[in-house]
Amino acid sequence: MKTQKSLLLIPAILGLLYGLGSILIPKSFITFFDIPADMITPGFVAWVVSAGIASIGLALLAFWMRSLTDDSSMKGGMSVFSIFFALFGLESLFEPVIIPEMTFNYTTLIQGIVFIILAIVFYVKRTPKEV
Questions:
Q1: How far apart are CA 73 and CA 118, in angstroms?
Q2: How far apart are CA 81 and CA 2, in angstroms?
Q3: Angle value at C-alpha 90, between 89 and 91, nearest 5 degrees
């Protein structure tokens, strides 16, 4: 279970980074992902702040899950994070297709690949080893 508890630090740290960036400096955080300036509206900024709050909630959930001692609960939680990372990674990879106004950029491509890899790692390592 030590591997799972170590892996759960990844969404805790990423969630805090994404969340704090989205809440404290939303416009700078948005432009980091090469979003065109004409697409940044007050409603979009508000949505980014809301997503930041959700990211911090996800980080807190991941950090809390590190206290689990039951193997089946840990396996279920790791599976949920695997699905989350897969969905987030796929959205990042297909963002230019989903939103035609978006231009291709390497930041979201790399982000998508990293989250797909995290999804695979969390899925493979979801079951604690028997001692």
A1: 19
A2: 17
A3: 90
Neighbours of 68 (CB within 10 A): 19
Q: Within 13 Å of residue 85, how many CA atoms lie on the same side as its CB?
A: 27
Measured distance CA(1)–CA(68) in Å, rounded: 9
Tens-digit pLDDT string for the chain (131 aa) = 889 999 999 999 999 999 999 999 998 888 888 787 888 888 889 989 999 999 999 999 999 999 988 888 999 999 999 999 999 999 888 887 887 777 777 888 898 999 999 999 999 999 887 65
Contacts of 29 by beta carbon, 8 Å cutoff, 6+ apart: 21, 22, 48
Other beta carbons within 10 angstroms of residue 42's beta carbon come to 7
* SS3 track for 58-109: HHHHHHHHCCCCCHHHHHHHHHHHHHHHHHHHHHHHCHHHHCCCCCCCHHHH
Q: Domain coordinates of the chain in residue numbers? A: 2-124
Report residue 58 as tokens: 């996800």
